[in-house]
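Q&A log
Question type: sequence-to-structure
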Amino acid sequence: MNLEKIKTKILGTIIALGIAVPAFASVAVSPTRIEINANKIKTNYITTAIEVKGDSKEPMRFKAYPGFFTIDEKGEVVMKDKASDPHDLSNKIRFVPSEFTVAQGKSQKLRINIAGINQLPDGENRTMLYIEDVNPKEMNIPTGQKGIGAQLIVKTRIGVPIYIDKGKVNKIADIEYLNIVKEKDGLYTDMKVVSQGNSKVRYTGRAQIIQDKKLIDEYELKGKVVGDNNYHIAKQKIVTDKIESPGEYTLRVVLFYLDENGKKKNIKKEANLHITGNV
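Response status: OK
Response body:
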C-alpha cells in the first residue's frame, strides 16, 4: 500500500512589541517598531522607512501587507481580519515597494507614507506591517514510521507594529490588584495592570521584598505592553533565594511607564508575603 507524505504547514511570525528582534530565519528588520507622535508633525502626512535584510547565503523575495490588531490581556497581538475600527491605519498606509527581492547579504528600504493625518481620531492609531517571504522553505522530517514521511513547509513572516498618536492622547496605567498565589514550584505574583487611556502603555518594573523596613531582595519584572483601555494579567515567580528564614514579609511592586508627554511615571502596589519553611 502506498502512503502519501503528511504535509504540515507552519507560518512563523515574530511581532516586535517592545522586544528587540534581531533576526528570524535569516531575516532581520530595522526598526522593529515605529511610534510617532503626530502632534509634533507640521505636515498632513508622515513618511518613514523600514530596512529589510535577507539571508547572507541566497537572495530572498518578500511581499509587504498591512493588518489591524489589538493587544489582549496576555500582552499578545490579536489580528483582526475585517476591522471597522476608526483607529485602523491599514487602509491609510502606503508603502513602496510592495514586493521585492533582497540580494544575498544585502538590504532593501521599504518606504512608508501615511496621509490624511488631520482626519485621524484622537488617541492611538495603528497597523501591523507584515514582511513575508514569498518562497517558503521545505524540510523533510523523519516520523519513525516506515512508509510515512512528513514535510514541513516553513514560511517566515515578521510583523512591524506602527503606532501614531494624534490629538488628545492619554497614557494612564494603574495596578488594580496584586495577589500572591502558591503553585507547585513556588510562589507567584498575580497582578492586573490596567491601561485607562486611549493609547497603549509599555511598562517595566521591579519587585522588592521587605521586612521591618529593610530591603531583603530586589529583582526585575518582565516588561509588557497593555493596550489602550485594556488590561494585562501578569504572573511571575517570586524570587526567594535571599530570604533566610520563614516569617512575614512585604512584597512591593514598582512599575514604570512613560505618559503621553514622555514623562516617566511609576505606580506601586504591596502585598503580604508569608514565607514558610518549605518555600
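Response note: The two ends are 58 Å apart (CA to CA).
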